[in-house]
Structure formats: structure tokens, C-alpha cells
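testing teh design pipeline on a random one, pls ignore if ur not involved
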């Protein structure tokens, strides 16, 4: 589609979205009223900069359903992702929203070269995480065969890959590295498999990792990007040229802003990615600040697609960590520690990547009155804390109790994370 036609379509969809949100979501009505904006002020896609931003805190303040713009009876599915503290952020989809999301994933799969004849093994988690069910709907939309194995149980993953003749494998790149090593160590080996394509995303990964995965598994490894708030995986994906992630901008309108001034940056410059869901009605996101840092390239790709290309995610403007594909905020750990009378509210998270698997250790201090040389008691409180963190965040930390007063205290921002991974 030419840029002019795309802009006209985006403008039309933006007008429809803003008027829907204004009339049906008290959250957006309030926000627009405060900014002195009415739907009549929005005539073209360029007018988008008049609209206020939406941020993660808005989702938290309106937990769980306060941003929905349709009656709950029209919401067919809910997904959730880590919030900044104990409560997750929740997203609801109408039938139309689910169809648009499936379409977006289907476009990615097609750009990766997948067809009806492929067998696609989905090793992203199924459940509240959008990875499993999101990919699932896209595979169905292209008419390929879905193998909904979900995450974990690596030996079974490899066995089914071999028995079924899986041709594509979808997982986080770090899990794929682990699976690749297990395949090479097994009697099956990569030559015993029919794999040809990897569908990797949900966390940052490097070109080096791409080469390793491609060499070890004898596949082409493609990047797929997305986030729960905007729908899930498939907001964009690479094409056969592997030179940027095409964003399906008739569905998800991208902008890059300076995270400090909040002004748009010149074309091609790095900044914070902002999305507006042009075709999502259950829970529209208008100018949602993703906190992801990247840039956009509007030049036409050799593949012929005119959809803008996004560079690799270069980092984040907040302190969100992605550990084993799961989003973790240090503030969540703090909130959980405060629930326990035994612990001081000081902690240090240490992350590393050993044998392609992220390690996640939290150093904590026990209050002097609870500090004891009775080992059973310490083991119990360690276990209680680890279980609570696992249930809130979804991954299991190693808890290390250190001597009282050894974790740095600071009036200012104390260092709460040491990340040894080289991403
Ligand atoms: O990770 C959705 C997803 C599932 C994408 C499966 C791709 C494949 P969230 O859990 O909400 O959603 O996390 C979204 O993860 O803001 C980025 O910081 C990061 N992220 C997602 N995809 C990529 C990628 C899913 N391809 C957050 N490269 C986003 C780098 C990524 N970072």
C-alpha cells in the first residue's frame, strides 16, 4: 500500500477509534476532557499528537476492567502480564479484536515463509501469557497444523519434533538455545529433524544468537515482536530479508518519541516506541508508551512490503527485566518483601545466563530479631518467599539470605539489579 493510502486508512481508523473510546470508555472520556480534546479535533493521522499518552500506571489504576470500551459480555477473552507491583495488567478482546490479532500473527508467519503444509510447534506458554494462544490463532489462520505443546518438558518437545516432523518451532530465543543444545546432545541430532523455521521473540536477542540458532538447528530464525497491552505477539515480524521488524501499521500505529520531552523524534532516530491500536475495540490503547527503545525505518524493504520496519529493541526506559521470557519489575519484589515481617525491605537481584538459561537470584536480609542459627527456620522463610514470588511473577527465584546490614542502603536510587547477561 502506498504511504498516502496507508495514511488515509490510518486517519479513518483513528477517527473511528477515538470516537468509540470517547463514547464508551469513561477512562478515555475523562482523559480527553482533561486534555481539552474532543473526537472532532481528530481529522487525520497527523492529529494523533494532540491526544494524551496512556501508560502502564493507567492500566494498574483501572485494574481489572476499568479501561474496557465495550460491555464485559462482549469480551471473549482476557490475558494478563506482569504489572509493576503485585497486580497484573489485564487486557480484554472482543471477537473482532481476536480476529485482527490472528490476522497480524498470520502476516508474520507468512512473512517467515510458512504455509498450510507446515507443522508449527508452539512452545510459548499457554495461559494468561499471550505467547501460546496468540501464536496458536495465527497458525490456524494460515491453515497450518498447530502443535500446542506449551513451554517446558524439553525431552518431550524434542521427541514430538522428531516423531511429527515439526517444521517450525516457536519459543523464546533463550529457550530455543537450550533446546538446540539438548537436540545436539541427543541421538536425534538436528539432521534427524525437519525443522526449517524458528519463530523467536518475547525477549531481546542478538544477531550472534540468531547465527548460533540458525547454525545449530539448520533453520532460518525470525524475530517476532509484541506486547500484551497492544494484543500480544505479532504486532510485527521480520521478512525473509531479516532486516527489521515490519509493523502491521494499519492495525498498530507506531510513533517514536523522546522519553524526556515526549515530543516525536525525527524519522529514523532512536526513542521510545508508542502504539495506538487502530482496530481494537474491547480495550483500545491510545498512544500507549511501551517503554521499549528503538527506531523506525520508512524506506521500502526489498521484500516489497511497505509496512514500516522497526529496529531491534535496544533497551527500556523503565527498569523492567525479562528473565526466562517473563517480565519482572524490581518493585514487585519490594512489594512482596514488605508482606513478610521477617525480611528487611532491601534486596539485590542478580541475573546471569548459564548454559543458555537465565539464573535469577535475590539476596535478602532477615531482620535481626528473626535471624537465627536454626537452619530449619531459615529454610522455611526462604521457601515461603520463593513460593510467593513464583506465584505472583511466575518464575522461581533462588533466595540467598545474607548477613544483616550487608545490602547497600541509599537515600537515592539504590542499585537493586545486577544483570551479568550480555544481550
Ligand atoms: O512478550 C508477547 C510476545 C509473545 C511477543 C511471544 C513475541 C512472542 P509481554 O509479556 O507483554 O508480551 O512483554 C512485552 O517484551 O515490551 C518488549 O520489551 C519485550 N519483547 C517482546 N518481543 C520482543 C522481541 C510478549 N522480539 C515486552 N525483541 C515488550 C525484544 C521483545 N523484546
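output:
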Amino acid at each position: 500500500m502506498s504511504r498516502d493510502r496507508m495514511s488515509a486508512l490510518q486517519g479513518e481508523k483513528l477517527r473511528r477509534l477515538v470516537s468509540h473510546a470517547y463514547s464508551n470508555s469513561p477512562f478515555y472520556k475523562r482523559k480527553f476532557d482533561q486534555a481539552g480534546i474532543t473526537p472532532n479535533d481528530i481529522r487525520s493521522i497527523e492529529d494523533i499528537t494532540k491526544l494524551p499518552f496512556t501508560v502502564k500506571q493507567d492500566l494498574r489504576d483501572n485494574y481489572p476492567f476499568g479501561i474496557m470500551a465495550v460491555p464485559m459480555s462482549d469480551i471473549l477473552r482476557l490475558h494478563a502480564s506482569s504489572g509493576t507491583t503485585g497486580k497484573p495488567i489485564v487486557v480484554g478482546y472482543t471477537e473482532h479484536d481476536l480476529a485482527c490479532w490472528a490476522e497480524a500473527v498470520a502476516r508474520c508467519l507468512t512473512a517467515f515463509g510458512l504455509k498450510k503444509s507446515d507443522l508449527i510447534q508452539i512452545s510459548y506458554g499457554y495461559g494468561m501469557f499471550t505467547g501460546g494462544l496468540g501464536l496458536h490463532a495465527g497458525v490456524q489462520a494460515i491453515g497450518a497444523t498447530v502443535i500446542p505443546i506449551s513451554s517446558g518438558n524439553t525431552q518431550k518437545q524434542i521427541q514430538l519434533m522428531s516423531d511429527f516432523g515439526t517444521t517450525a518451532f516457536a519459543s523464546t530465543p533463550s529457550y530455543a538455545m537450550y533446546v538446540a543444545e539438548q537436540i545436539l546432545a541427543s541421538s536425534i541430532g538436528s539432521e534427524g529433524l525437519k525443522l526449517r523455521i524458528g519463530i523467536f521473540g518475547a525477549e531481546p536477542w542478538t544477531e550472534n544468537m540468531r547465527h548460533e540458532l540458525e547454525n545449530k538447528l539448520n533453520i532460518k530464525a525470525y524475530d517476532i515482536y509484541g506486547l500484551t497491552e497492544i494484543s500480544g505477539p505479532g504486532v510485527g515480524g521480520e521478512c525473509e530479508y531479516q532486516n527489521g521488524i515490519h509493523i502491521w501499521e494499519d492495525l498498530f500505529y507506531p510513533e517514536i518519541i523522546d522519553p524526556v520531552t515526549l515530543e516525536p523524534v525525527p524519522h529514523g532516530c532512536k526513542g521510545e516506541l508508542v502504539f495506538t491500536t487502530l482496530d481494537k475495540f474491547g480495550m483500545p490503547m491510545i498512544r500507549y508508551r511501551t517503554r521499549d527503545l528503538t527506531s523506525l525505518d520508512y524506506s521500502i524493504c526489498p521484500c516489497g512490503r511497505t509496512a514500516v520496519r522497526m529496529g531491534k529493541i535496544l533497551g527500556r526506559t523503565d527498569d523492567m527485566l525479562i528473565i526466562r521470557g517473563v517480565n519482572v519489575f524490581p518493585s514487585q519484589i519490594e512489594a512482596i518483601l514488605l508482606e513478610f515481617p521477617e525480611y528487611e525491605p532491601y534486596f539485590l537481584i542478580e541475573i546471569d545466563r548459564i548454559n543458555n538459561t537465565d539464573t535469577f537470584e535475590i539476596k535478602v536480609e532477615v531482620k535481626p530479631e528473626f535471624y537465627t542459627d536454626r537452619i530449619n527456620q531459615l529454610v522455611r522463610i526462604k521457601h515461603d518467599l520463593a513460593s510467593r514470588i513464583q506465584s505472583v511473577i511466575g518464575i522461581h527465584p533462588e533466595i540467598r539470605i545474607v548477613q544483616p546490614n550487608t545490602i547497600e542502603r541509599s537515600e537515592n536510587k539504590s542499585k537493586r539489579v545486577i544483570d551479568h547477561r550480555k544481550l
